[in-house]
Amino acid sequence: xxxxxxxxxxxxxxxxxxxxxxxxxxxxxxxxxxxxxxxxxxxxxxxxxxxxxxxxxxxxxxxxxxxxxxxxxxxxxxxxxxxxxxxxxxxxxxxxxxxxxxxxxxxxxxxxxxxxxxxxxxxxxxxxxxxxxxxxxxxxxxxxxxxxxxxxxxxxxxxxxxxxxxxxxxxxxxxxxxxxxxxxxxxxxxxxxxxxxxxxxxxxxxxxxxxxxxxxxxxxxxxxxxxxxxxxxxxxxxxxxxxxxxxxxxxxxxxxxxxxxxxxxxxxxxxxxxxxxxxxxxxxxxxxxxxxxxxxxxxxxxxxxxxxxxxxxxxxxxxxxxxxxxxxxxxxxxxxxxxxxxxxxxxxxxxxxxxxxxxxxxxxxxxxx
Length: 369
Ligand SMILES: [Zn+2]
Prior knowledge:
This protein has two domains: 5-145, Trypsin Inhibitor V, Chain A, CATH 3.30.10.20; 161-365, Aminopeptidase. The chain has a six-stranded mixed beta sheet, with helices on both faces. It has a three-stranded antiparallel beta sheet with strand order 1-2-5, with no helix packed on it. The protein has helices at residues 5-28, 47-53, 60-66, 94-104, 149-157, 206-223, 241-251, 284-305, 319-322, 339-345, 348-365; strands at 32-35, 80-85, 107-113, 123-127, 133-135, 139-145, 164-169, 176-181, 189-193, 227-230, 255-262, 272-277, 309-315, 328-335. The protein is built from eleven helices and 14 strands. By secondary structure, the protein is an alpha/beta fold. It binds zinc ion. Zinc ion binds at residues 170-171, 196, 206, 260.
C-alpha cells in the first residue's frame, strides 16, 4: 500500500503532539540517578559529516565509535547522571528534532543519508530509539534525508586515491509501488521498490537481513581502506531502485554491489546466485565488467558459506541495473523460504561468512588480493 504525502504529514503532526506530551512528562519526572550512558552508533552514510557536525566536546573514543558500524551502546563509566527518555523525533524536520532533543538534554549527532523520495531534511531514523532511557547529555544520532550526502563524502575523498564501492542493501521498511521507468527513456515501468521476501520460519524481513549483511561488508571494505557509499543506512527510507543506481553513479563507484535474499513457493529451493546486467543497450557499457565481478563474487561467497551454487543470472529487466553507469551485481544470499537457510541467514555467524565471501570477491575484482 502506498501512503500519500498528505498522510505522512498527518502522521508527522500527530507525532509532534505526542512528543510535546513526552517532553512535558520528562521535564516533570523525578530523575533516576544511574550510570550515564554515552551512546554512539555507526550509521555511516556520511561519516565525516557526522563527526564534524558536533565534534566539539565529544571524546575521541566516542567519535571513533560513531564511525564504526557497531550499534552496541558504548558506556562511559564515569558519568553518573539522570536517565531521560528519548523522545520520538522520526518524521520531523532535522532542526525541529535538534531543538526538541536539546531542550530535553541530549547532544545530537547528524548522520546524512541520500534523500531518495523522502522530504529533504526529514529525520528518517534515530538511535537510541524513542522510549529508550539514557543519561542526560547523551548523544542521539539522527539519520536525515540529505540530497548532498554522497556529494559531500566524495568531496572529502577528492584528491585521495581511494577506491569507492557502493553497497545497496535491498528493499526498505515500506515498499513504494509507484512506477518508474525500467531504464533511461523507457516507457516500460516497474515499481520503485518492492517489499521483498520474509523468512518463512524466522519472519525476518529481507530489508533487515540485507542491511545487516551490507553493514558487515561495509566494515570489512573500510578496514581495507576502501571508501564505501551506502545507498541506505536505515530501514526507514524511501529510495527507488533507479535512485539507488544513481547514488552509485554519483559516487563514481568502481562497483555497485546490491545485497538481497531470495524467496520461492517451493520451500526446498535453496542456495546462492548472483545477478548481473546484460542484454540491452543501457547496460552494454558495463556488461563485461559486471559479469567478471559477478563470477568472482559468486565463487567466493559459495566457497565462504558452503551454500548450494545456483550460478549467475543475466538480467536486462532490472531498473537498478539499467540506470547504473558503473559495473553492478546483485547477490541473492539465500532463500528465506527454505527453513534451514532462513535460520542460517538470521545468525551473525552466517552473515559474517556471507560478508567474508562478498568482500573476497570484491577485492579480487579490484585487484586488491
Ligand atoms: Zn530482494
